[in-house]
Amino acid sequence: MRLKTEIEIDSMAVAGRSAAMTLKRLRESVVPGISTMDLEEIAREELHRHGARPALLGYHPRFSKVPYEFATCISVNDEVIHGQPSPKQILKDGDVVGLDLVADVDGWLADTAITVIVGKGSLKAQRLLSVTQEALRHGIAKAQVGAKMGDISSAVQRLVERNGFGVIRELSGHGVGCEVHEEGIDVPNYGFPGKGLTLLVGMTFCIEPMVTAGAPGIKHRPGDPWAVVTRDGSIGAHFEHTVAITEQGPRILTAI
Ligand code: MF3
Ligand code: CO
Ligand code: CO
Question: What domains appear along the chain, each with residue ranges and CATH number?
Answer without folding.
Answer: 6-252 (3.90.230.10)
